[in-house]
Structure formats: C-alpha cells, structure tokens
Specification:
The protein is an alpha/beta fold. The chain has one domain: TIM Barrel. The protein contains twelve helices and eight strands. The protein has an eight-stranded parallel barrel with strand order 1-2-3-4-5-6-7-8, surrounded by seven helices. Helix 3 runs parallel beside helix 5, helix 3 crosses helix 12 and helix 6 packs parallel to helix 7. The radius of gyration is 18 Å and the shape is globular.
Length: 276
C-alpha cells in the first residue's frame, strides 16, 4: 500500500502544487446565484468537483459548511468526497477533530477507514489535547495509507496567544508540536504522511520546520491576503514540501466551469513559479 506522502508527492508533481478548498458558505452560494439550502449546496459542490477534480492535486471540503444542513448535507459531503477521488484528486477533509481515547479512535474510523462513506485521503486535526491524543488517527492513517494534518501555526489573530506560549523547556507550544510531528515522520521517503497546517499569512515566526519531513498545508492565499511570494518567507528551506491552499480566490470565479478552471490554472502557475 502506498503511503499518503508518496501519493501526494506524485499528485503535486503531475498536477502542480495546489489545494483548493470547497467552502460553500452562505455568501458564496449567494454570489453564485444559488439558494442557501441543500439543493444549492449540492449544485455548488458538484460544480467545483466537475471543474477541478480531474486537474488539481488536492480538494479540501470544509465539513462544517456541509454539516450545517444536517444529514442531507452530510450526504452531499459523502458524494463530493467520492466523486473527487474517482476523478483523481486527493481529498483532504477539513474537520479539525481532536479528542482522547475511544472518541479520537471513532473520529479516525469515521474519516480514515476505507469502509466509511466519509473516508478521505487525509484529514485535519487539532493537537491541543496533546499530540499523543492523536495517536489513533496516526495509527489508522498508517494502516490505510492516509494522511493527517496537525494544526501548528494558524493565521487567526487568536492563535499566537496559545501557539507562541513558551513551555518550560523554552520552546513554544507550536515548536513542540512541530518537533513531535518531525519524529513521527522520521525516515519516511519521499515524504511523511503526517503534515502540519501553517498559515501563509503569518510571516517569519522563528519556528524551525526543517526536520518535519512531511507536507505543510499553507492556507490563507488569495482572499485572506497572502501571495505565493510570501511562502518562502514563512517556510524557508522547507518550501519544497508546501501545499498552497486557495479557497475564495478560486471559488469566486464560479459558477462557470471554464472560469473556475482558469482561476485554478493561474493559481497553480503562480505557486509553481514561487516554489521553484
């Protein structure tokens, strides 16, 4: 079984370094001329899949925007995941789960077990109950060739109060997370399957990402203010492992399939040029 890191490296090589979020919030549905209901959700999600799933490396549905419609919205999410993967895109499900013991194991089973209708190629998780609490997700991901992206340095203004706090050994909380994930990925080739989420808008923070040996998801490009040129300042020598993530900058081009494809192609070209 191929690891997620291997599959991601190949997808980025073949399709370019781009992750596109699928974030059907009410304002974007309205911008597309769609109703804020399950029918609008389904039309939106399936249009994005039809436009992009056969050409971008990764699609990243934000689970909350589907969950807000209840079971029918979750059914649309299941369909979106299934159709995206069938078209060749890797699916990173943005759920940011984090818990302990059997509950974390259940979350992992829901999203990383191929028998589940919500099974994705990778998920996002929160480490703030301790990185060790995420072990059930790491274990199941390894079993099934899936990936896990751990929040580390986020771009929201509330983040630094926790993430930059200094522990007893002098490291920041974020650096302890980075270092623990580096150990998980040690020796993986060509790339580990446990990644980090590091916002593209945060600038130079003084954190050391050089030993992570895993994918670095960089949200915040486009409408949130970051540009591909910012990536080298944030990631330095680790820039080769960066997966730039766009959402509104690409999705705002819809509902035209041709315009969505053109926006994604521009973003891919800009990221290729910036990352080298």
């Amino acid at each position: 079984m191929e690891s997620f890191g291997t599959r991601l490296r190949r997808a980025v090589t073949q399709r370019g370094p781009l992750c596109v979020g699928i974030d059907p919030h009410a304002a974007l549905l309205d911008r597309w001329g769609l109703p804020d209901d399950v029918a609008g959700l389904e039309r939106f999600a399936h249009t994005v899949v039809d436009a992009l799933a056969d050409r971008v490396a990764v699609l990243k549905p934000q689970s909350a925007f589907f969950e807000r419609f209840g079971s029918r919205g979750v059914a649309v999410l299941e369909s979106t995941i299934r159709q995206s993967r069938a078209a060749g895109a890797l699916v990173l499900l943005d759920v940011k789960r984090g818990d302990i013991g059997s509950t974390m194991a259940a979350y992992a089973d829901a999203y990383l077990n191929p028998a589940s209708p919500l099974s994705a190629d990778a998920i996002t998780v929160s480490p703030y109950l301790g990185v060790g609490s995420l072990q059930p997700a790491f274990d199941l991901a390894a079993t099934h060739g899936a990936g896990v992206f751990v929040l580390a340095l986020t771009s929201n203004p509330e983040g630094p109060g926790v993430q930059h706090a200094v522990a007893a050994d002098g490291r920041t909380v974020a650096q302890t997370i980075i270092d623990e994930i580096s150990q998980v990925n040690a020796g993986a080739d060509p790339l580990g399957s446990v990644g980090l989420v590091v916002g593209a808008t945060i600038g130079e923070t003084g954190h050391d990402l050089s030993k992570v040996n895993g994918p670095l998801l960089a949200p915040g490009l486009g409408a949130q203010g970051a540009t591909p040129a910012d990536l080298r300042a944030v990631f330095g020598a680790s820039v080769r492992n960066v997966l730039p993530s766009y959402s509104r900058e690409v999705l705002g081009a819809g509902p035209s399939v041709a315009d969505l494809r053109a926006a994604a192609a521009r973003a891919t070209a800009e990221c290729r040029a910036a990352l080298g």
